[in-house]
């Protein structure tokens, strides 16, 4: 492959000659961002991956950290998917990459990684972004930025990130692009999509080819989310009648991120009544090595794969791994302030969060009418932003149903339920908690495949059909 050789020679030449200079040529920077091997990686991978920074604001010195894993097969023909975690303040590397949809998951020893067979980079080029500044490896040279994050700047910086990143990775310009995320990314994903759609209107010559987005267990509408939350807690038998009643009185009209003291207190009581269970996944054991949080969206504890080698403490292994100097060197991590430890979620970012609208239903409405593909999914054993909350939110959109509620199947088993609305598809994932791809990795891969293809989740008939045609195929081959 002569092109590769030339590129490689150029890369060696430029990188040697530009050690002291900042690299101005984006393609050169792309090559410099390539990650060769991760510490504790004892297997080979068939895909290239890249990690580094994109400056989103030069004045303040704000830079966002990304990690791109190309598709395993034929990356040039595959779409680009951006994955975002929430919090606010939680790292997409900690969750998305290291325990959900990414190819590299961290082992128990905190020193090595294993390959996730259900990684979404088996179907797409997968981009992780630590957003906003102060989260994961992302930073700002203006310290006060960390204490002044909010939805608006997060969307604006993320858009700037994409524009600058596409300059460094021009092979993805014009590529089909999708955004997916969960939890507080229920704000980030539609807000960034809206920023892109509006940007595209002004820049018709160089649009970002956004095709759609998907959010799971997503904070959407504070009223619906609160009503659904307490209803779920009560119906699942986790809280008392009295607390159920009280919580509705005190919280229904409150902001999820900035609740009143009274609402906060009744939520504390609700969590106390629940006892030491994992609210993010109510039927799996919590990680007993960590304290239990009572904050709705803050993440301290973790659960592993149900029914598999089970490890509810994954976050702690990531905290060891991503603080290793050799790991940070391999990922080209910049040390703006060496005293800052890498954390799965940055508490300072979370507690100092500024603007957070009480609803993003209007954003969904605008984007649905702009023609984007919009999917909303929900793991149905989550007591943080439960399936009931999401159903109330979708109901508030008042969309006509185009395909009625039904079960969907994988391997002959009910994977969850789905309903098609005009402009929106809703999919639940049975037995999955807040982090659907963590609890049900195989079903989550089926979900993203259908989302990217724009096909509906398999019905029972389809399962039977494909089984029949598969067995007919086998019989034919035997003949
Ligand atoms: C932040 O400051 C450091 C030290 O001056 C500098 O090397 C780096 O490029 C700055 N980052 C950004 C994004 O401006
Ligand atoms: C570096 O971190 C320390 C301790 O967290 C903090 O006091 C200081 O302001 C930080 N400096 C910069 C430039 O971010």
Fold blueprint:
Blueprint: H1 2-17, H2 26-33, E1 34-35, E2 49-57, E3 62-69, E4 80-84, H3 93-100, E5 104-106, E6 113-115, E7 125-130, E8 139-140, H4 151-168, E9 177-182, H5 185-202, E10 210-216, H6 222-235, H7 241-251, H8 261-274, H9 314-321, H10 325-330, H11 347-351, H12 361-369, E11 373-379, H13 387-396, E12 401-410, E13 413-421, E14 424-429, H14 436-439, H15 441-453, H16 460-478
Parallel strand pairs: 4-7, 4-9, 9-10, 10-11, 11-14
Antiparallel strand pairs: 1-2, 2-3, 3-7, 3-8, 5-6, 12-13, 13-14
Helix pairs in contact: 3-9, 4-5, 5-12, 6-7, 6-13, 7-8
The structure holds 2-acetamido-2-deoxy-beta-D-glucopyranose (2 copies).
Description:
This protein is an alpha/beta fold. Among the domains are: 1-30, no CATH class; 36-220 and 356-463, Rossmann fold (3-Layer(aba) Sandwich). Helix content is 38%, strand content 17%. It contains 16 helices and 14 strands. The strands form two sheets. Strands 1, 2, 3, 4, 7, 8, 9, 10, 11, 12, 13 and 14 form a twelve-stranded mixed beta sheet that branches. It has a two-stranded antiparallel sheet with strand order 5-6. Strand 12 (401-410) and strand 13 form a beta hairpin. Helix 5 packs across helix 12 and helix 7 packs antiparallel against helix 8 (261-274). The longest helix has 19 residues, at 460-478. The protein is globular. It starts with a helix and ends with a helix. One 2-acetamido-2-deoxy-beta-D-glucopyranose binds at residues 55, 61, 63, 141, 336.
